Amino acid sequence: MVGVRPYHTRKYMSDRIGRIEEVDELLTNEISKTFCLAKWHHTTIYLHRGQTHSCYHPKPHDIPLQELKYDPSVLHNTPQKIDERIQMLNGDKPSGCQYCWNVEEMDDNKDPAADKHVSDRHQRNASIYTEDRLQEIIYNPPDYKINPEYVEIAFSNECNFKCGYCHPMHSSLYRAEIQKHGPYSMVSNHQADIDWFDIYEEDSPYVEAWWKWWPEVSETLNILRITGGEPILHKTTWRLFEELSENPKPNIEININTNLGYTSRRVEKLVDAVKDLTENNKIRGFKMFSSIDTWGKRAEYIRTGLDIELWEKNQDIYLRGVKSHITHMVTFNILSVTTFKDYLKKVLEWRKTYEDIIPNNLGSEPNVRKIRFDTPYLKEPLQYDMHILPKEEFLPYFDDILSFIKDNLVEDDRTMFSGLEYERFRRVRDYFATSPYDDEKIRRGRIDFYKWFNEYDRRRDTNFLETFPEMTGFYDMCGELNANDIQLVELK
User: Fold this and answer.
1) Phi, psi for residue 98 in degrees, rounded to 5
2) Cis bond before residue 231 (omega within 30° of 0)
3) Rounded to whole angstroms, how far apart are CA atoms 150 and 38?
4) Over the stretch 199-256, which tens digit does the pLDDT of each residue have?
5) 3-state class of 198 per DSSP?
6) What is the maximal distance between C-alpha atoms in the chain?
7) β-strand pairing of 371-374 with 326-329
8) Listed residue (304, 286, 404, 302) closest to 344, CA to CA
9) What is the pLDDT, as a whole number, of residue 400?
10) How far is the C-alpha of 207 from the C-alpha of 225, rounded, in Å?
11) Cβ(75)–Cβ(213) under 8 Å?
């Protein structure tokens, strides 16, 4: 059956997760079974919103501006994070980390000898852990303000895309749509209203605090990841590149999240900047991450502003110019399900194309793929959540995807799939099969699905049924639920 891993995959994963299991046991014994180093050493900071969180699973929370005036490290060390750290030190589970608790709870009441699901908490602990970092936490008070080893930062919400599951907080183009048409008030989830938050410009006190913190935090940083909005459009991104060129930080690896949806001239400018920083050893390295959720016209429907041909052309310019690998950030959602195998076929095509063009300069990782991808599943908004799909109709799509990965899995061949990629999608498939929502939540999600995409099509001049004809039955079912809901309201 498709959920059982082949021998060579099991062997690979046994080798691969050895460190994960070792670190998990160590941290459980030394601290607690809910301890996550990301709460101390990872941070995502949205300077344009004045908010932060330690990874993308918990909701962002406010950075207290008053405290920030006296201590720029409050960009990371907020009172809320310190409280959550104390919870973890005590073995409690902060509610914002439910994504990982859900994954880990799938192993409850299972045969202890069965394969375990690896949560992001487990993976992050294994990647972050060093003895020095652990001792720093153990021998300092719980409210100790730490400088992280990993920072993801957004300087602005300026963006040339308006992805449906995104939000006006993160996209200036999406914000402009809401200003013109108003919020999606016809749905109960993800109305995308904009009157409850502020957007700060790139000369805000939060950006000012970042540059005050920079001399200190840059000494401890291992990775600085720039996100958005679209960071290639942000003036502070280019200021950072200039700062690094003039004052090198060879201890830091720079990562960038980009939609690759701008002119090829901008990609060429980025290539020149990256080559200056890397070839002259001004930074330790550079990695690009680009978002894509499936392939073809369906991908363009999900991510308004995406031109799939331009995206592929810009990826080619970057890969041939910088001669380094790229990672695709897949937000696996309800609209990815039916054609995700088409995207995976493109991954295999690209891996063969760039295998000989991009040198294997990744140090001790000889089997790292030149085109990489991850498949975290979307949790909200509910109308984009895969769990509102009927299991009996759509689970075969997941099984087919998993079979395709397994059939093309060769661990020591970088042009094929890896065991870890198989495991990551197995996690998605198994989570879809668990049906975590009650009937009322699913019903409400389906009604919102129908209302949302009708309004989405009206505003954006798109056509859901023409783009996803294979989902016509599901769409019609959601429409019937909506009609029944309207009748019930009228009767009342």
Assistant:
1) -60, -30
2) no
3) 9
4) 999 989 999 999 999 999 999 999 999 999 999 999 999 999 999 999 999 999 999 9
5) coil
6) 73
7) parallel
8) 404
9) 98
10) 15
11) yes
pLDDT tens per residue across span 470-486: 999 999 999 999 999 87
Helix runs in 34-187, H state only: 38-41, 65-68, 79-89, 98-105, 120-128, 131-138, 172-181
Which DSSP string corresponds to 204-269?
SHHHHHHHHHHHHHHHH-SEEEEESS-GGG-HHHHHHHHHHHHS-EEEEEEEEEE---S-HHHHHH
Residue 446 to residue 40: CA distance in whole angstroms: 38
Phi and psi for 223 in degrees, rounded to 5? -135, 135
Distances (CA, A) of 282 to 63, 278, 478: 31, 6, 55
Q: How many CA atoms lie within 13 A of 385 on its CB side?
A: 22
Written as six digits, the tokens of 146 are 């730490």
One-character DSSP codes across 350-390: HHHHHTTTS---STT-TT--SEEEE-PBP--SGGG-GGGS-
Indicate the pLDDT class of residue 109, thresholds 50, 70 and 90. Answer: low
Look at the block and give the residue holding tokens 């020095």: 132
The span from the CA of 65 to the CA of 283, in Å, is 31
> Among candidates 271, 252, 250, which has minimal Cα distance to 260?
271
